[in-house]
Specification:
Blueprint (H helix, E strand, L loop, with lengths): L6 E7 L6 H6 L8 E6 L6 H8 L2 E4 L5 H15 L4 E4 L11 H9 L5 E5 L13 H18 L11 E4 H6 L11 H11 L4 E5 L13 H23 L22 E2 L2
Parallel strand pairs: 1-2, 1-4, 2-3, 5-7
Antiparallel strand pairs: 3-8, 4-6, 5-6
Helix pairs in contact: 5-8, 7-8
Length: 262
Amino acid sequence: MINNKKVVVIMPAYNAEKTLEKTYNELYKDIVDEIILVDDNSSDKTKEVAKKLGITTIVHDKNKGYGGNQKTCYTAALKTNADIVIMVHPDYQYTPKLVPAMAAMIAFDEYDACIASRFIGKGALEGGMPFYKFIANKCLTWFQNILSKERLTEYHTGFRAFSKEVLETLPLKECSDDFIFDNEMLALIFYKGFTIGQISCPTKYFPDASSINFLRSCRYGFGVLSVSILYALAKLGLYKSKIFRKNGRSLDKNEDLPYFQN
């Protein structure tokens, strides 16, 4: 808890058996009030490791995709009356040691959300980011900043923190169940007038860290371009796609979730 704000860490997991415990062990338990993991129908022993660690665990009976997993994560966090929700990938690609700093940026009302950027501080390439991903990330971020008139150093990090107000306001039910969910969420944060802070995060690429392949990366890239254009059109009042309409559906914390019994 920070500044009397309840901090909940959510972990969208898929085949994270080898890295989950290491990620869990680096979380500051005196800051984090609760940890929730959603296993997206893994084929390994992710849920068994989570059970051993005493993590509150939800198991999807079928794979719902990265965005679908996050929707369950955030719904579960809101059920606990969390004030701040931080997404930590259990593949250990992002260091959990930054959780207190990210939580503080929201707890003291400086920002509504916070992202950990791999493009502030130590170079992403030195940390092992593939060159094609480095170039794609830089180009897409430049394009997005132009259309959104914002100045984020990265839109594609998976290490993020949000206030309760952000999660309750955004129409996340309308967002994709695929990887583009992350990008739609940032676009909605700006569209709704919330603020995003940034913190430097070291880059870590290694065999057990999850990563999408080249073809899926290309599909994601085109999705990013589409979201950026739709955001610009919505801001100009020319066209509002599903996620930017006033009647978009937000998460329902009263929704029943299939809790795994620890």
